[in-house]
Amino acid sequence: MTSAKSAFEPERLTRARQAVAASGLGAVFLTPGPDLRYVTGYDAIQLERLTCLVLPADGDPFLIVPRLELPAAQASEAGELGLEMVAWDETDDPFALVASRLPGDVTRVGVADRMWAVMALRFRAALPGAEQVPAGTVLRELRMRKSQAE
After folding, report:
1. I need a labelling partner for 63 at 20 to 30 A (CA). Which of 88, 95, 101, 145 fits?
2. Would you tell me how many other CB atoms lie within 10 Å of the CB of residue 143?
Protein backbone atom coordinates (compact mmCIF):
# COMPACT_ATOMS: atom_id res chain seq x y z
CA MET A 1 0.00 0.00 0.00
CA THR A 2 1.29 3.49 -0.86
CA SER A 3 1.60 5.92 2.02
CA ALA A 4 0.13 9.42 1.79
CA LYS A 5 3.64 10.83 2.09
CA SER A 6 4.99 8.93 -0.92
CA ALA A 7 1.90 9.78 -3.00
CA PHE A 8 2.22 13.53 -2.43
CA GLU A 9 3.24 15.68 -5.40
CA PRO A 10 4.47 19.26 -4.79
CA GLU A 11 3.07 20.35 -8.19
CA ARG A 12 -0.43 20.06 -6.74
CA LEU A 13 -0.05 23.43 -5.06
CA THR A 14 0.74 25.07 -8.40
CA ARG A 15 -2.18 23.31 -10.10
CA ALA A 16 -4.52 24.31 -7.27
CA ARG A 17 -3.42 27.95 -7.56
CA GLN A 18 -4.09 27.86 -11.30
CA ALA A 19 -7.51 26.30 -10.74
CA VAL A 20 -8.46 29.01 -8.24
CA ALA A 21 -7.32 31.76 -10.63
CA ALA A 22 -9.45 30.24 -13.42
CA SER A 23 -12.50 29.67 -11.19
CA GLY A 24 -13.69 33.25 -10.80
CA LEU A 25 -13.34 33.00 -7.03
CA GLY A 26 -11.31 35.51 -5.03
CA ALA A 27 -9.80 32.78 -2.86
CA VAL A 28 -10.19 29.22 -1.64
CA PHE A 29 -9.86 28.24 2.03
CA LEU A 30 -8.77 24.68 2.84
CA THR A 31 -8.94 23.53 6.44
CA PRO A 32 -7.71 20.14 7.76
CA GLY A 33 -9.10 17.28 5.75
CA PRO A 34 -8.58 15.50 2.46
CA ASP A 35 -8.19 18.63 0.29
CA LEU A 36 -5.56 20.28 2.51
CA ARG A 37 -3.67 16.98 2.66
CA TYR A 38 -3.95 16.53 -1.13
CA VAL A 39 -2.70 20.03 -1.97
CA THR A 40 0.06 20.43 0.65
CA GLY A 41 0.84 16.99 2.04
CA TYR A 42 0.04 18.33 5.51
CA ASP A 43 -2.19 15.95 7.46
CA ALA A 44 -3.19 18.54 10.03
CA ILE A 45 -5.23 17.64 13.08
CA GLN A 46 -8.71 19.14 13.03
CA LEU A 47 -8.91 21.45 16.04
CA GLU A 48 -11.19 24.21 17.24
CA ARG A 49 -8.33 26.60 16.35
CA LEU A 50 -8.06 27.59 12.69
CA THR A 51 -5.51 25.93 10.44
CA CYS A 52 -6.17 26.99 6.86
CA LEU A 53 -4.44 27.07 3.49
CA VAL A 54 -5.46 30.28 1.76
CA LEU A 55 -5.22 30.16 -2.03
CA PRO A 56 -5.90 33.68 -3.34
CA ALA A 57 -6.83 33.99 -7.02
CA ASP A 58 -4.18 36.67 -7.28
CA GLY A 59 -1.18 36.46 -4.98
CA ASP A 60 0.82 33.91 -3.09
CA PRO A 61 -0.84 31.23 -1.00
CA PHE A 62 -0.18 31.01 2.72
CA LEU A 63 -0.91 28.59 5.52
CA ILE A 64 -2.33 30.09 8.68
CA VAL A 65 -1.73 27.95 11.76
CA PRO A 66 -1.99 28.28 15.53
CA ARG A 67 1.48 29.06 16.88
CA LEU A 68 1.48 25.77 18.83
CA GLU A 69 0.94 23.85 15.57
CA LEU A 70 3.63 25.71 13.58
CA PRO A 71 6.42 23.14 14.22
CA ALA A 72 4.18 20.30 12.96
CA ALA A 73 3.27 22.28 9.83
CA GLN A 74 6.92 23.12 9.15
CA ALA A 75 7.95 19.47 9.62
CA SER A 76 5.28 18.25 7.18
CA GLU A 77 5.62 18.17 3.42
CA ALA A 78 4.00 21.62 3.40
CA GLY A 79 7.22 22.88 4.97
CA GLU A 80 9.10 21.87 1.84
CA LEU A 81 6.84 23.87 -0.52
CA GLY A 82 8.26 27.33 0.20
CA LEU A 83 4.79 28.21 1.45
CA GLU A 84 4.51 31.17 3.80
CA MET A 85 3.30 29.99 7.20
CA VAL A 86 1.55 32.58 9.30
CA ALA A 87 1.36 31.70 12.99
CA TRP A 88 -1.37 33.22 15.12
CA ASP A 89 -1.66 33.48 18.88
CA GLU A 90 -4.61 32.78 21.17
CA THR A 91 -5.46 36.49 21.42
CA ASP A 92 -5.51 36.94 17.60
CA ASP A 93 -8.53 36.62 15.33
CA PRO A 94 -7.26 34.33 12.55
CA PHE A 95 -10.36 34.90 10.40
CA ALA A 96 -9.84 38.67 10.44
CA LEU A 97 -6.15 38.03 9.72
CA VAL A 98 -7.05 36.04 6.59
CA ALA A 99 -9.54 38.71 5.49
CA SER A 100 -6.94 41.47 5.97
CA ARG A 101 -4.57 39.71 3.57
CA LEU A 102 -7.12 39.47 0.75
CA PRO A 103 -8.05 42.25 -1.68
CA GLY A 104 -11.05 44.26 -0.55
CA ASP A 105 -12.99 43.41 -3.71
CA VAL A 106 -13.32 39.66 -3.06
CA THR A 107 -16.97 38.76 -3.70
CA ARG A 108 -16.83 34.93 -3.81
CA VAL A 109 -14.70 32.43 -1.89
CA GLY A 110 -14.52 28.66 -1.87
CA VAL A 111 -14.58 26.98 1.53
CA ALA A 112 -13.41 23.41 2.13
CA ASP A 113 -16.26 20.97 1.66
CA ARG A 114 -15.58 19.53 5.11
CA MET A 115 -14.92 22.81 6.92
CA TRP A 116 -16.63 22.97 10.28
CA ALA A 117 -19.72 25.16 10.13
CA VAL A 118 -18.48 27.37 12.96
CA MET A 119 -15.39 28.22 10.89
CA ALA A 120 -17.41 28.89 7.73
CA LEU A 121 -19.60 31.24 9.77
CA ARG A 122 -16.55 33.02 11.17
CA PHE A 123 -15.25 33.50 7.61
CA ARG A 124 -18.67 34.85 6.61
CA ALA A 125 -18.47 37.41 9.43
CA ALA A 126 -14.88 38.37 8.48
CA LEU A 127 -15.80 38.69 4.79
CA PRO A 128 -19.44 39.87 4.90
CA GLY A 129 -19.54 40.82 1.21
CA ALA A 130 -18.26 37.48 -0.03
CA GLU A 131 -20.51 34.62 -1.11
CA GLN A 132 -19.26 31.20 0.03
CA VAL A 133 -19.27 28.24 -2.35
CA PRO A 134 -17.87 24.72 -1.94
CA ALA A 135 -14.15 24.54 -2.76
CA GLY A 136 -14.68 21.03 -4.11
CA THR A 137 -16.06 22.52 -7.31
CA VAL A 138 -12.61 24.04 -7.95
CA LEU A 139 -10.55 21.04 -6.86
CA ARG A 140 -12.68 18.24 -8.32
CA GLU A 141 -10.86 18.01 -11.65
CA LEU A 142 -7.46 18.06 -9.95
CA ARG A 143 -8.50 15.24 -7.64
CA MET A 144 -9.77 13.11 -10.55
CA ARG A 145 -6.33 12.86 -12.12
CA LYS A 146 -4.30 10.22 -10.33
CA SER A 147 -0.55 9.95 -10.29
CA GLN A 148 1.37 6.69 -10.64
CA ALA A 149 1.88 6.62 -6.86
CA GLU A 150 -1.84 7.02 -6.21
Report:
1. 145
2. 15
